[in-house]
Amino acid sequence: MSEEDDASKTEEPTGKRLEKAREEGNVPISQEIKSLMMLIGGIVAVGMFAPRMARDLSNLLRPFIARPHELPTDFEGLRGLLAGTLLQVGLILLFPIAILVMLAFLSVVGQVGFVYSPKRIAPSLDKLSIIKGVKQFFSLRRLVELGKSLAKLALVGLALGFVVWPQLDWILRLPEMETVAMLLQVRVIIIILIATVLGVMLAVAFADMFFVRYQSHKKLKMTKQEVKDEHKQSEGDPQVKSRIRSIRLERFRKRMMQAVPHADVVITNPTHFAVALSYKMEDMAAPKVVAKGVDFLAKRIRELAEENDVPIVENPPLARALYASVEVDQFIPPEHYRPVAEVISYVMKLKKKR
Asked: Tens digit of pLDDT for each residue in 292-335?
């Protein structure tokens, strides 16, 4: 069933899917990169702090060996001695541990950037389930990780064997050398071994990083139906959107028709276009379009105008121009002032005659 699901995932993950995975903390992090950085940090810490740490630890532990009879034997004294000793050990190891923690943090941030995922660290009863824990321990992912670890150990072992074998004669003759020459040779061998291990770990880390990213990308792929569903959720159901548009259009038309009886004039084509204008000289800087329509809607505007004694003026060029350039509830533009003013002047003259 899982293979069928994977086979149906043919679409690339969308931005929304990638963003959701990042929010949940499902980002491709290579543990081998972290191990490599920790190894480098350990080598740097040993090179920088080993002499001082050895000296400080020696001074700290000397009283336990040289003067054990002076140590307190009562409970309070032993507790204070233990607390003080642990504090001193923590201070001695503070900088090496800080380097390791910083490199571990940078190894993660360098791969995926800074990711804050409260859901990932939130407490959950599933994490305390023994059955689920056993299933995860024997899961395919664990087997893959075990296989990668064994392969890494095999590669490191082969590389070390390949490097050490040419130096075997030197190693066997070490007891016959003088102390200074022996130490120099041991130093060379150690440097070669460290460089070999780092080289293998570097190759393994980059290979694992690309593998983890490939696996993560493959896992986030989507089926065609998932892409459609996501698009439908983000854009909205087309049927619902169509229904909403219909309701809005109906309300708009109803409000527009309610404004026709209060218009001052309706300019027609005479049959295809109808534009209703309102102009209150004391309140408006220019006439306003309060309703417009074509064909059936134009006919309905004319009928409402006749029923409410609103003057109807036939001016096909002006009706078409106003319909095309002015929206409902907008004032007419200056280029239409003159012809509209002529129409309104004509309407006012008709009202005076009446």
From this structure: 888 888 888 888 888 888 888 888 888 888 888 888 888 888 88
Sequence-distant (6+) residues with CB within 8 A of 143 are: none
Q: What does the alpha-carbon distance between residue 94 and residue 26 come to, in Å, rounded to a whole number?
A: 32
Residues 64, 300: Cα–Cα separation, whole Å: 106
- Which amino acid does the sequence have at 123? P
Token output for 235: 């854009």
Domains (ranges, CATH) in the chain? 22-122 (no CATH), 124-221 (no CATH), 257-353 (3.40.1690.10)
Q: What pTM was computed for the model?
A: 0.51
Burial class (CB in 10 A: 0-12, 13-18, 19+), 204: buried
CB contact burial 92-121 (16+ within 10 A = b; e otherwise): bbeebeebbeebeeebbeebeeebeeeeee
Cβ neighbours, 10 Å, residue 268: 22
